[in-house]
């Protein structure tokens, strides 16, 4: 190879290596402890021969019968929260080896980097990463009261039944800004009741439900009648148990999209991806104990002020709202409850000493 070309090749290689190093080292995470099943845990086996070749990077089939399937979105902005959430799920599971994670990312995300990051911290984690083509939903998103709510990946939960394999029939959806302090299998086992009940979530019927929609919505008889013969209550979409088979059969993604299309023509709500869920499901969901979503710990969507826990027991702490615990801890301005998130933080700090 001529010297000029050789030097050019070496320079390009070093530049790419430097760029890859920056991508890899921008956030490094510690390896989490390995968690094992208790002796009385059921064995999860794949009895569907059509799924024998459907494997993730750890050569574990993803269509286990009897497993607890957990779905989350995954991106570089919130990956620190995601890592903490994963650790909390595993740490408090009686059967951690029976948990299978399904991570949805944008189609443009560096899936190899995300996969490597997960595998480094959780070498034995059963998981799969799915690209989400957000080009369609991008055209349906209307500006909301906080720009972070307008991220297309924030709407991926509406497309889970289309993105995940058909062999995954029930899933627990979790946001990235939460930690569990109880066994997720209890939440996953929530009974959904009748054949037409698609999801379960904690309901909050003391909230002012009318505030989630505009005067344009309530003053239009054909729209306000949407909730006729229903007792609609607010529920937070960051923690849901979803029957994917029933969702697929009812084509609920299309129902959500229809409300988003209407929102583009006449503004009927202000708050991102939540109102379409309320329009389709409020008053039709299976209830879950409030301990499974102690939400709002991130404060409101404007100031992100500190908040206290709701009265009662706690199985899941959720920093929904503007303030995130890792950001407040880094800024040395934590809220008191952020101390409950900190033990699950796997971020490798520059000053950490090897044990």
TrEMBL record:
<dbReference type="InterPro" id="IPR050748">
    <property type="entry name" value="Glycosyltrans_8_dom-fam"/>
</dbReference>
<comment type="pathway">
    <text>Glycan metabolism; pectin biosynthesis.</text>
</comment>
<protein>
    <recommendedName>
        <fullName>Hexosyltransferase</fullName>
        <ecNumber>2.4.1.-</ecNumber>
    </recommendedName>
</protein>
<keyword id="KW-0808">Transferase</keyword>
<dbReference type="Pfam" id="PF01501">
    <property type="entry name" value="Glyco_transf_8"/>
</dbReference>
<feature type="signal peptide">
    <location>
        <begin position="1"/>
        <end position="20"/>
    </location>
</feature>
<dbReference type="GO" id="GO:0016757">
    <property type="term" value="F:glycosyltransferase activity"/>
</dbReference>
<comment type="similarity">
    <text>Belongs to the glycosyltransferase 8 family.</text>
</comment>
<keyword id="KW-0735">Signal-anchor</keyword>
<keyword id="KW-1133">Transmembrane helix</keyword>
<keyword id="KW-0812">Transmembrane</keyword>
<keyword id="KW-0325">Glycoprotein</keyword>
<keyword id="KW-0472">Membrane</keyword>
<dbReference type="InterPro" id="IPR002495">
    <property type="entry name" value="Glyco_trans_8"/>
</dbReference>
<keyword id="KW-0732">Signal</keyword>
<dbReference type="InterPro" id="IPR029044">
    <property type="entry name" value="Nucleotide-diphossugar_trans"/>
</dbReference>
<dbReference type="GO" id="GO:0005794">
    <property type="term" value="C:Golgi apparatus"/>
</dbReference>
<keyword id="KW-0328">Glycosyltransferase</keyword>
């Amino acid at each position: 190879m001529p010297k000029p070309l050789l030097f050019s090749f070496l320079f390009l290689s070093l530049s790419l290596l430097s760029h890859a190093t920056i991508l890899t080292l921008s956030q490094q995470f510690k390896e989490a402890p390995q968690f094992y099943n208790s002796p009385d845990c059921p064995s999860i086996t794949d009895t569907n021969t059509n799924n024998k070749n459907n494997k993730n990077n750890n050569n574990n089939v993803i269509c286990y019968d009897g497993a607890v399937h957990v779905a989350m979105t995954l991106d570089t902005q919130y990956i620190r929260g995601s890592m903490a959430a994963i650790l909390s799920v595993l740490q408090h599971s009686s059967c951690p080896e029976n948990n299978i994670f399904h991570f949805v990312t944008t189609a443009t995300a560096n899936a190899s980097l995300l996969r490597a990051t997960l595998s480094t911290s959780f070498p034995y984690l059963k998981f799969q990463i799915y690209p989400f083509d957000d080009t369609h939903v991008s055209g349906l998103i209307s500006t909301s009261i906080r720009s972070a709510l307008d991220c297309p990946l924030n709407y991926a939960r509406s497309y889970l039944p289309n993105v995940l394999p058909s062999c995954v029939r029930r899933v627990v959806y979790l946001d990235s800004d939460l930690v569990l302090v109880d066994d997720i299998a209890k939440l996953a086992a929530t009974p959904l009741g009748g054949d037409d009940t698609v999801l379960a979530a904690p309901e909050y019927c003391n909230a002012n439900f009318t505030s989630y929609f505009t005067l344009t919505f309530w003053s239009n008889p054909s729209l306000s009648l949407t909730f006729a013969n229903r007792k609609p209550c607010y529920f937070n979409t960051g923690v849901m148990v979803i029957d994917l088979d029933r969702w697929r059969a009812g084509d609920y993604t299309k129902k959500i999209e229809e409300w988003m299309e209407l929102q583009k023509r006449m503004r009927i709500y202000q708050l991102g991806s939540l109102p379409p869920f309320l329009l389709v499901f409020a008053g039709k969901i299976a209830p879950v104990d409030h301990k499974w979503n102690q939400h709002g710990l991130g404060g409101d969507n404007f100031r992100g002020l500190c908040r206290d826990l709701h009265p009662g027991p706690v199985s899941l702490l959720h920093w929904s709202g503007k303030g995130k615990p890792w950001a407040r801890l880094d800024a040395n301005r934590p809220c008191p409850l952020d101390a409950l998130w900190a033990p699950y933080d796997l971020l490798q700090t520059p000053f950490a000493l090897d044990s």
